[in-house]
Amino acid sequence: MIALLLLTSALIQRTDGSAVDSALCAEANSVAAAFCSSVEDWTNVVDVTHTCLQAEDSLDKVLTLLDVEHFHICTYPGQLQTVCNAVDANDHMTTCESILDIASLDHGVTESLESAARRTLDGDENDSEEAAMDPLVCSAGTAVAATFCAQVDDWTDVNDVTQRCLQAEVAINTMLSFIDHEHLMHVCDQHEQLEAICASVNADDDSTTCELYLAMEESAQGERRNLRRRSCGCFDEMTVVQTRKGEKFMRDVIAGEEILTCEPGVYTRVFANVDHQDTNKVSLIQLETDLSSLTLTSSHFVLSKGQYVRAGDMKLGMEMDGETITRVSPALGRRFNVVTLRQDIVVNGVCGTWVDSSFAAILYLAPLNRLMNPLATAYPQFIFSTTQKLADVVVPLLDAQVLSYHVAAIIMIVVSFLLAAGNFAVAMGTLGFFYGHLNGKVVQ
């Protein structure tokens, strides 16, 4: 494989069709056979790329010594298969021609990017999107899309499309990790764009496929920016909780009320009802099982096999409160949440939590809060009115990014310690009272 890559770099200037050294082609053909024979499944793009990148790592040192310009041949797994077909046929010259085709393709992409960058620097804003195109992502996306598209039989079956897309998303993110590229997220929410990409793949229109894929990546990056701007984990306002007086929508819960925890018959008091005052509905994720569903933000924790997992990381087949996820789909809603002393609460009949990954530090106080929970039934209402007013002030500042969610975590931790100190003071005062009373009787 090293000889193959050396040949590619050495011949990169020969993309005009000039003759190549047949002896060099034969040597490359011979050494490349080891790489080609190690690839068992060309549809497994991750394995093909990983194997190639291992050879490319060795090549970098050689190219440095030879002062030969290096390019990312491993971003062209489809063309590498053509090279290996020629290697298997022991067709030396076709091996060289295939390599030159890859070099020419990469050279053209690089020139296009450099030209676009120059136009952008010259002030042509219309070409800014073209300048941002990443050939690594483009090539990886096109290769993985072909495998994904071949597996989709019915585009109206959204659940099946999502499941297959999530599998492809894992494959492409694994590949992108090899080249230190940012992972893609929320791609599988965009079914219409996915179908358009597959139509382009089936038409063998690589250029359009790449453009559509990069447009979808830009959309996904925009979604990530939006999620960062509204990163607080919350439920949809119509999520149902169980209070002492019966079921209520989360938006209707009042501070001081008690709601059911995951422990049968045990309730916990609400310190604040968090309303993000969304004028318009925002993007959420709906996780469905055969028995229930939850609609919440992607950063919100759910319970899976006793572990806290971000809703955005839940995939089909994973468990939520012991039930298998059968569908993951985008949804719209308005964000509400509650803050209770216990972190575990029942929502829509599912054992869940109000805790979000952005203030996960509060989970360290779960044992302390669990001990204090029985005492909270005796707390006066003014405590809950105070914490509700505090939330009403802090939440808009969090949404406006005036405060970070680290500050929110600190505030909740401080409140827990203040409650613990208050409980301790009351307990000590009560003991002191009875101790003094008993001592007084003894003296008499």
| Shape summary | elongated
The gyration radius over C-alpha positions equals: 30 Å
DSSP summary, beta strand count? 15
Strand order of the largest sheet: 1-13-5-4
Helix proportion range: 40-55%
Question: End-to-end distance, in Å?
Answer: 99 Å
Determine the mean pLDDT: 75
* CATH class bucket of the largest domain: Mainly Beta
Largest sheet: 4 strands, antiparallel
CATH topology title of the largest domain: Endonuclease - Pi-scei, Chain A, domain 1
Low-confidence stretches: 1-18, 58-68, 116-121, 125-133
Q: What class would the helix/strand composition place it in?
A: alpha+beta
What is the domain tally? 3
Count, helices: 13
Strand content: 5-15%
CATH superfamily of the largest domain: Hedgehog/Intein (Hint) domain
Order of helices and strands: HHHHHHHHHHEEEEEEEEEEEEEEEHHH
In the CATH hierarchy, what is the architecture of the largest domain at level 2? Beta Complex
